[in-house]
Amino acid sequence: MGFRDGPLFFEMGSSLRLAAFWDARAMGQSLEVIAADLGVGEGTLRRYLVRSGGVRPRIVADSRARLSLEERFRIKELLVEKRSVRSIAAVLGPAPSTISREIRRGSVSGYRSEYRPMRAQRLAWEGRRRPKTLKIPSEPRLLTAVKAGLAERLSPEQIVGRLRRDFPDDPAMSVSHETIYRTLYLQARGGLKRDLQTSTRTGRTIRQPQRRAGHRRSQIKDMVSIWDRPVEALDRTVPGHWEGDLIVGKHGESAIGTIVERHSNFLILIHLDPAKENRVIATRDGLIAKLAGLPTTLKRSLTWDQGREMAQHRHISDMTGIDIYFADPRSPWQRASNENTNGLLRQYFPKRTDLSIHSQTDLDHVADQMNRRPRKRLEFATPYEVLSQYLLH
């Protein structure tokens, strides 16, 4: 299949090839590589990707999705042989009712002898491509709630979880996070306004496949390994175990300290004073200022990566009363709560910007917003709610 056949590939092509495209994209392959593998032009793929909004289409659970053009020609052959609907279904696999509907839909006047495979294929794809009414814009209360959640920088999944918690018995307020994504990205079909896309985590107009990348850090003196951490820190049932790291600004010249409590996902942000003689001193003083005043029951452990900013970890531990442990090199999953939170914080503190301009007051305001976000892991309660409940008991 050459470049000129590209549009035909997407209008009439097999579901297997479309699946191959989306699977390859999810694996992070470039459009150039995918195009070469599938035998279509890169421009064709790019246009299709833009039209789809980067969202993999759902497979419609009826004959339009299950029957290929080849199968429709096979139906025609079996009809010429005067085979029954049940016999055709037994040969092809779909239910007899599916075959019956297919024959009626693909026949010029409804008669079996006038079934036209190409007509049936065209009608099937036209029906599949016909614009559908999107639920969110058609439900004013739901639209208002989704807009409010996006304005608070909640993810679609968080919005859905909170809606289920707040409106458990209201079908009109029930929606999936994928529906929110589709409404955001498929704007040509009547979705939310473009300016609301700035409230999504990436601000992209095409959904991107997720990728992970490790980073290399050097060891520091007298560190205690994460494997020596108390057993109770392995799960999230006991509060008081924290994970920490830095998010770094433009050219690595500025940074913000982030620490996350594993049980509640409660976040503390730390301003690293650029006036300090170096980042080690700034990190030391910032952590002591924030951790020293915590209740004893919330100072069980702190796990950090092997960044050189923690060179004075023993002094920090002495001054705050919290034991400090270090994750293995290039193992961000050992501090998953902190890594995930740092990703969310990039909404507020974009990469390649000067982070030193944000005062501690600014950081406290951002942390407050984050701590009031519902979280899926907390059954869509907020970190504030979970930690407050623990402290009250």
TrEMBL record:
Residues 197-208 have a biased composition (Polar residues). Residues 209-218 have a biased composition (Basic residues). Keywords: DNA recombination. Residues 195-218 are annotated as: Disordered. One of its GO terms (cellular component) is cytosol. InterPro entries: Integrase_cat-core, IS30-like_HTH, RNaseH-like_sf, RNaseH_sf, Transposase-Integrase, Transposase_IS30-like. It comes from the Bacteria. SUPFAM superfamilies: Ribonuclease H-like. The keyword Ribosomal protein does not apply. GO terms for biological process: DNA integration; DNA recombination; transposition. Residues 235-391 form the Integrase catalytic domain. GO terms for molecular function: nucleic acid binding; transposase activity. This is IS30 family transposase. It comes from Naumannella halotolerans.
